[in-house]
Design brief:
Chain A has 16 helices and 9 strands. Chain A has about 300 residues and is an alpha/beta fold. In chain A, the strands form 3 sheets. Chain A has a 5-stranded parallel beta sheet with strand order 2-5-8-1-9, with helices on both faces. In chain A, strands 3-4 form a two-stranded antiparallel ribbon. In chain A, strand 6 and strand 7 form a beta hairpin. In chain A, helix 2 crosses helix 4. The longest helix of chain A has 18 residues. Chain A is elongated. Chain A starts with a helix and ends in a 12-residue tail after the last helix. With about 500 residues, chain B is of the alpha/beta class. Helices cover about 55% and strands about 5% of the residues of chain B. Chain B has a 6-stranded mixed beta sheet with strand order 3-2-1-4-5-6, sandwiched between helices. The N terminus of chain B is likely disordered. The interface between A and B is large, with 56 and 48 residues.
């Protein structure tokens, strides 16, 4: 299945190198992320990234592209996406023009071109509009293909992706099969709004990105929010962890943590107390009921706090 | 060269997991295709077999991918080894826990070359660990280097500093000292775990930690809360270490396959509502939110997909006027799929409370797919609780209010379906109309009261559909005081609903 994978030049030498490369562009990967990206490259398999919103799934693909100096080709999925938006499309208007100019020319000079010539001509690459998937396949320079929110397409449309993902080729009836000259690094992201088909999952490596642990999140805050003090970053991530432990409709994501840290920095708050936390909670949480709940928890002055342990 | 050390010992099943662990047997060799052969391949195939028995679907291609992946990673890196197996074999995050358990059983034996000091990052705990190791190597308890008090003190220090290496060493020492493990003893791991943890007395340790931290100066409530969570995290880590150590010894005693079998747990979607323990209930609570979200999306899509109905002849002719009578623009009817009104009547007595909770939660979470959802709960009295769900977005709070405020006790607080149904008919019966779908949830264990099944027959006549959901396995129906058969007679369907999978399937066909 992965014939071409073996002779392709590997992009990374080891998981550690992936990690270093990503760190260089400001993305802090843990062992799992680095390892799976590395394997995706080595095995020539797409990586299916799943996890809660705002944990850096899309950012991972972007950062890998940046670290490799490759072009990022992005296919944003939505309900109702079809072949002509994902794979390729014939440039109908241009084809019409071609036929018409042919007609004009032949009436002037009285020499006609055969039907076969015209047909061959209008179904040539010149009239082909490449869409992201075909573009990634045909690219000669290094590319990273990102298929974003793949769970939004219908199950039937998923089948469109299968040929590209497993064999890295696209079959165009009029032209034949376009094979990849090099295997692009492919990332698919999913918010898990529906179960993806077995066929798709089988072709991919699976990577679940969860909320980072305190240590990693602190590092992320420190790298992504310039000027923040270590003490404040520490407080921020610990409060966020505390909030994530509550039963909420939507737990704060990493991007929201970063927003919150930036807000605190802008407000000139260097030490987060309960008041400061509750007054800026709307940055972290997006549902009123969640905000109320978290505010109540954080400013709770109950006499026996130990009662709530676990 | 590493191959030779692996292959001969990999013959007997007991030594296979112990000796083929990548962390020890392959010191630093470059991964070659031979490294993925022989003994490792054998372990891997029994590993995959165990995954399949645990309910994780692993296809043949995925199995091949895993082997292929192992050729590319440095085998001495245990984390990388784990993640490459996970990425290739497990494609659903809900299965991650099951995978992790099986992985820990199969690939966590420590070889003789393993030294705790390797993990020591120079935090000055090296000599302490040596002490602990001394007590470990003198297994049998004769030459214990430390007293129980010293161990407890060390535990406190490790927890206060968050020193992972020290915690691991303490976990080992504690298991040696307290668990009282003997080879061949037919006792489950949880027994040893309980014994060890009771001796370590983590609650007291927690109190001391909080007191110790408090002595340094005044803290706000918030700081105290954060502090406590930090320590709780460390305690959880310690507990995990103790568990791992016990598991490791069990594996050494009985072999990986047997231990994995005893540790096998149902996947979240297969957990039985009626027999879920506390941890499983937590897992269920976590699993239900994404499940309902998926369900809602699916139902909404189903509704949208069927938007084009048959040709609307009148409208097409009307539109053809602008094209000079040519019906160039065919018009279609828009079917309006009826949104059913749902009435949930749930038994919330002890045995079936969890089931009622999850069903109410699921139905309310997708209430946008129905024109209206009304909920009633009963034990022997019955009360409407719809209002509790409307005031708040928080299902947990609504459930809490139901349990504390709803008036569901009539006489003695033992289930009385007959009386509850009778009252339901008297008070709300006239509000049932042909658009209503009624769901009755319960095991129909009526404590030998009168069944009053006529109520259901009346309801079935008035309502559009009447379904009975029973959390008991079908083979238990109509045994003892269960009279579900009498009720099911009048229902459009009686379904067994023992786990999330079955519940989800039912709710989907409802929408």
């Amino acid at each position: 299945m992965n014939v071409a994978a073996a002779d392709a030049e590997p992009r990374f030498a080891s998981p550690a190198q992936v990690r270093e490369g990503l760190r260089g562009v400001g993305y802090l990967a843990d062992d799992g992320i680095a390892g799976v990206v590395y394997l995706g490259d080595r095995l020539g398999k797409p990586v299916l990234v799943e996890g809660p919103a705002g944990t850096g799934k899309t950012q991972l693909a972007k950062s890998v592209a940046e670290a490799l100096g490759a072009r990022l080709i992005r296919l944003q999925c939505y309900e109702g996406i079809d072949e002509s938006k994902a794979l390729y499309e014939w440039n109908y208007k241009k084809q019409l023009l071609r036929i018409q100019s042919q007609r004009v020319a032949s009436s002037e000079h009285q020499v006609g071109e055969g039907w076969g010539d015209v047909e061959e001509d209008i179904f040539s690459e010149e009239f082909l509009l490449t869409r992201p998937l075909l573009e990634a396949i045909r690219a000669t320079e290094p590319v990273v293909l990102l298929i974003d929110e793949v769970d939004r397409v219908e199950v039937e449309t998923e089948a469109l992706l299968l040929e590209v993902l497993s064999d890295y080729q696209v079959s165009i009836p009029e032209l034949g099969t376009v094979k990849a000259t090099q295997i692009p690094l492919v990332f698919l992201t999913s918010n898990n709004t529906r179960e993806l088909s077995e066929a798709l999952k089988r072709r991919c490596l699976f990577l679940h990105i969860d909320y980072p642990d305190v240590e990693r999140e602190r590092q992320i805050v420190l790298t992504r929010v310039p000027g923040i003090s270590a003490a404040l970053a520490d407080q921020v991530v610990r409060i966020v962890r505390s909030i994530r432990a509550l039963e909420l409709k939507k737990a704060p994501s990493v991007s929201e943590t970063l927003d919150w840290a930036r807000t605190l920095l802008l407000l000139g708050i260097s030490n987060v107390d309960a008041d400061a936390a509750t007054s800026t909670l709307h940055i972290l949480l997006k549902y009123q009921s969640d905000i109320d709940k978290a505010a109540k928890e954080l400013s709770a002055t109950d006499a026996a706090p130990g009662a709530k342990a676990r | 060269m590493t191959q030779e050390t692996v292959a001969p010992e990999a013959v007997t099943p007991e030594t296979v997991p112990a000796e083929t662990v990548p962390a020890e047997t392959v010191p630093s060799a470059a991964p070659t295709s031979e490294a993925a052969g022989g003994g490792l391949l054998e372990v891997l195939s029994s590993f995959v077999t165990e995954l399949r028995s645990a309910g994780i679907p692993v296809s043949l291609t995925e199995n091949l991918d895993a082997v292929e992946a192992l050729r590319h990673i440095p085998l001495e890196d245990r984390e990388a080894f784990k993640y490459s197996l996970a990425a290739t074999l497990v494609k659903n995050y809900a299965h991650w826990k099951a995978f992790e358990t099986v992985f820990e059983v199969f690939f966590s034996q420590r070889g003789s070359r393993y030294r705790l000091k390797d993990d020591d990052d120079g935090s000055g705990a090296g000599d302490v660990i040596d002490d602990l190791l001394g007590s470990r190597e003198g297994e049998g308890g004769a030459s214990e280097a430390m007293t129980a008090e010293e161990l407890a003190e060390m535990l406190l220090r490790a927890l206060a500093d968050g020193d992972d290496a020290l915690l691991r060493a303490i976990a080992r020492a504690a298991v040696t000292r307290y668990a009282g493990m003997e080879p061949g003893r037919p006792v489950g791991g949880s027994y040893y775990l309980y014994r060890t943890l009771r001796q370590l007395d983590l609650d007291a340790a927690m109190d001391q930690l909080m007191a110790g931290a408090g002595a340094e100066g005044e803290r706000t409530e918030l700081e105290e809360r954060l502090e406590r969570e930090e320590y709780q995290g460390r305690l959880a880590k310690l507990r995990a270490e103790v568990e791992a150590e016990i598991r490791r010894r069990l594996v050494a005693d009985r072999g990986a396959v047997a231990v994995a079998k005893s540790l096998r747990k149902p996947l979240p979607e297969d957990i039985d509502f009626m027999h879920a323990n506390r941890d499983e209930l937590v897992a269920l609570r976590r699993a239900i939110a994404p499940l309902t979200r998926k369900l809602a999306v699916r139902l909404a899509r189903k509704r949208r997909a069927g938007r084009k109905g048959p040709l609307d002849f009148r409208s097409t002719v009307r539109h053809s006027l602008s094209y000079g009578g040519v019906p160039a623009d065919p018009q279609f009817r828009h079917p309006r799929p009826s949104k059913p009104e749902i009435m949930v009547v749930a038994d919330i007595s002890g045995s079936v409370a969890a089931f009622a909770r999850f069903t109410l939660q699921m139905v309310h979470a997708i209430s946008s797919q129905f024109s209206r959802v009304r909920s009633f709960v009963f034990i022997d009295g019955i009360d409407e609780v719809t209002g509790y769900f409307q005031g708040t977005d928080d299902i947990g709070e609504a459930i809490h209010r139901i349990n504390t405020e709803a008036d569901v006790i009539w006489v003695d607080g033992h289930s009385d379906y007959g009386h509850a149904l009778e009252v339901f008919w008297d008070r709300w019966g006239k509000e049932v109309n042909p658009k209503t779908t009624i769901l009755v949830l319960g095991d129909a264990r009526n404590n030998y009261h009168a069944s009053q099944a006529w109520v259901l027959s009346e309801l079935a006549n008035k309502a559009r559909h009447l379904y009975w959901l029973n959390p008991e396995p079908r083979s238990y129906w109509d045994t003892g005081d269960s009279i579900v058969g009498q009720y099911a007679l009048y229902c459009d369907g009686a379904y067994e609903c023992r786990n999330l999978k079955q519940l989800e399937r039912f709710v989907e066909q409802l929408g």
